[in-house]
Write a structure and sequence with these properties.
The protein folds into three domains: 109 residues, no CATH class; 127 residues, no CATH class; 90 residues, no CATH class. Helix content is 44%, strand content 16%. The protein is built from twelve helices and ten strands. The strands form two sheets. Strands 1-2-4-5-3 form a five-stranded antiparallel β-sheet, sandwiched between helices. The chain has a five-stranded antiparallel β-sheet with strand order 6-7-9-10-8, with helices on both faces.
């Protein structure tokens, strides 16, 4: 994107910023006179911390002005007790910093003007609690939240190494969204890093709301039933994936982190697998594969035995099955389909409906499963 250079005067720059935000009421402008120049502050009131602005920007500069200390406009960062003070040279950076909650300082002296950005973001955050959909028995119980800076800090806490690399990308034409590509230098292949980087750079949409939308935009085969990326809210799972040479993607405003590439083994993996001994972990992993195969193949095996391969069923069981199916108006394939559909509806209702109703639906689903199992044993 071609950068637009700053306009000649601070007054025109201030007016251009106001027009860009359509003279919105939460865009606050404050002008103060200092020794030798004029300082204009601009910030978005809803996402900027006014106490930080008062204590770290206004108070130090006004104190120096009252002491009649000579201050040069280009030396303002030296008098502000904040580490995140940046000099700005183009329009897009000004607007982006304002939307990030920063305060823009425009210092106008007789010869030129200088523009700085100070980090004064105010945001309401929730604590990094354990993810509800990924409970663990042992190991860390922290989880990602919606703030991308805090999520980076969680990964830094789990992986204390200088090889942990964060690459920030900006996606979205109308509403910008920060995407961070994460990998371990020396562990991840450059081919995989370049592939993920190219897919992110090829995204051309107005906005991205969540990591789930990003996942769909990054997939090469959208019609495939097998996912190319997996998502998690556990920092432990992401840290172990990075140690295995994979790439993770953080999305600002989403607690879910994408991991690429994805294998079938990862889909059946839990965070607890890393903390148990290899023998119980292997047995649990094998059990997961067996139960997955049973859930996929058992309905088909039931239909095949009932409808086509009667000779494989023991005689006593075949006679019992024929008696129980005398009053059933549907063939076995329709019966199995209705059973699967009913269980899926109850499962979805237990997840989506409000908690009191969802608990009742989960109880109904469990009762339905028990009745189906009892009926199958009676047959």
């Amino acid at each position: 994107m071609k950068r637009k250079r700053l306009v000649k005067t601070a007054v025109k720059l201030e007016e251009e910023i106001k027009e860009h935000f359509h003279h919105n009421e939460d865009l606050k402008v404050k002008t103060i006179k200092l020794n030798g120049f004029t300082l204009t502050l601009l910030y978005l009131d809803d996402i900027s911390d006014r106490m930080v602005i008062q204590k770290t920007i206004l108070s130090p500069l006004l104190t120096l002005s009252s002491e009649e200390t000579t201050i040069n406009a280009e030396d303002i960062p030296d008098f502000i007790p904040m580490a995140a003070v940046n000099s700005i040279q183009d329009h897009s950076a000004i607007f982006r910093h304002l939307m990030d909650g920063c305060t823009i300082l425009i210092a106008q002296d007789p010869t030129a003007h200088h523009v700085f950005s100070v980090k004064t973001t105010y945001s309401v955050k929730r604590s990094p609690d354990e993810p509800v959909n990924e409970p663990t028995i042992s190991g860390p119980r922290d989880g990602f939240i919606e703030c991308i800076q805090d999520n980076k800090a969680l990964l830094r806490a789990h992986l204390k190494t200088s090889n942990l690399i964060f690459e920030q990308h900006i996606v979205g034409k109308s509403v910008i969204k920060y995407i961070s590509i994460i990998y371990l230098k020396g562990k991840t292949s450059e081919t995989l890093i370049n592939e993920v980087r190219d897919r992110v750079n090829q995204i051309d949409v107005d906005y991205i709301t969540d990591a789930g939308v990003l996942e769909q935009l990054l997939e090469r085969n959208p019609l495939s039933v097998f996912p190319e990326l997996t998502s998690t809210q556990h920092p432990t799972k992401v840290a172990n994936a990075l140690l295995e040479g994979r790439v993770a993607l953080l999305t600002d405003g989403s607690p879910s982190v994408l991991i690429a590439p994805t294998t079938l083994n990862m889909l059946l993996q839990t965070p607890d697998d890393y903390y148990f001994k290899w023998i119980p972990s292997s047995l649990i992993r094998i059990l997961s594969f067996i139960t997955a195969l049973i859930s996929v193949l058992l309905p088909a095996a039931y239909i095949a035995l009932i409808s086509f391969h009667h000779g494989l069923i023991p005689t006593s069981l075949a006679v019992s099955l024929s008696k129980t199916r005398e009053g059933v108006p549907f063939p076995s394939v329709i019966e199995a389909f209705i059973m699967e559909l009913t269980i899926e509806i109850l499962r979805e209702a237990g997840v989506r409906l409000p908690k009191p109703i969802g608990i009742y639906c989960k109880y109904c689903r469990s009762d339905c499963n028990r009745r189906n199992s009892r009926q199958f044993r009676n047959r």
